Amino acid sequence: MDGHAGKLIFGKLGGRDIMAMDGRFHYYEGYSMKEVTFPVRVMYELGINTLFVSNAAGGMNPSFKIGDLMIIDDHINFFPEHPLHGKNFPTGPRFPDMHEVYDKQLRDLADEIGREKGIRLMHGVYVGVQGPTFETPSEYRMYHLLGGSAVGMSTVPEVIVAHHCGMKVFGISVITDLGGFDVPVEVSHEEVQQAANASQPLMAEIFREMIRRCN
């Protein structure tokens, strides 16, 4: 898949044992929601209790700049298929509460680390959509009017399943392009990758320090 190696990595980060995905399965590639979220269920069965997620997203907040890191406070799910549709897995209730999917203590910890290290961190609501097209200017404006700060084609299904499993979740979006403003901005996959790669060291520093300090 473009921009995703599709590897499962075991190692250490911040002095802790971690399991990481170098790439992910996307719904727009034709995978079912069960396939998209299967790695999260594997992580749960292996004893993972905290999930850190990241993505590249288009920013709709006028205060955002390309390359900004946005801590995800909440999400809006626009995927046409729900990852918990069908028989309920015994990892969680049939109707899970969604009031605080993204852990408040982890978000506060990220802010603290960002202040210490002088890393600009924004906050916002991530809108998850099917893709694979980037958004039209009107779609950007619609998502923003509905309360969205950034939009992308991943993350929400995996987060829902992790939350259903009782895992703590922390998420960051790298703002790789901007849309919905008065002047239309064209975007390409290559430009998105370049912006994401440029911000990767700052995001890695936040993740590394958070993992080191987590109980």
UniProtKB/TrEMBL annotation:
Cross-referenced InterPro entries = Nucleoside_phosphorylase_d, Nucleoside_phosphorylase_sf, Purine_phosphorylase
Top enzyme class: transferase
Q: Does the keyword Transferase apply?
A: yes
Pathway where it operates? Purine metabolism; purine nucleoside salvage
PANTHER family found in the cross-reference section: METHYLTHIOADENOSINE/PURINE NUCLEOSIDE PHOSPHORYLASE, PURINE NUCLEOSIDE PHOSPHORYLASE-RELATED
Protein name (record)? purine-nucleoside phosphorylase
Ranges where the Nucleoside phosphorylase domain occurs: 3-212
Q: Which CDD domains match?
A: PNP-EcPNPII_like (cd09009)
User: Could you tell me the EC number(s) of this protein?
Assistant: 2.4.2.1
Q: Which family does it belong to?
A: Belongs to the PNP/MTAP phosphorylase family.
Superkingdom of origin organism: Bacteria
In its UniProt record, which GO terms are filed under biological process? nucleoside metabolic process
| Pfam families to which the protein is assigned, alphabetical | PNP_UDP_1
One molecular function GO term is:
purine-nucleoside phosphorylase activity
Keywords for this protein: Glycosyltransferase, Transferase
What does the entry list under GO cellular component?
A: cytoplasm
The residue stretches assigned to a coiled coil in this entry are none
Gene3D superfamilies in the cross-refs: Nucleoside phosphorylase domain
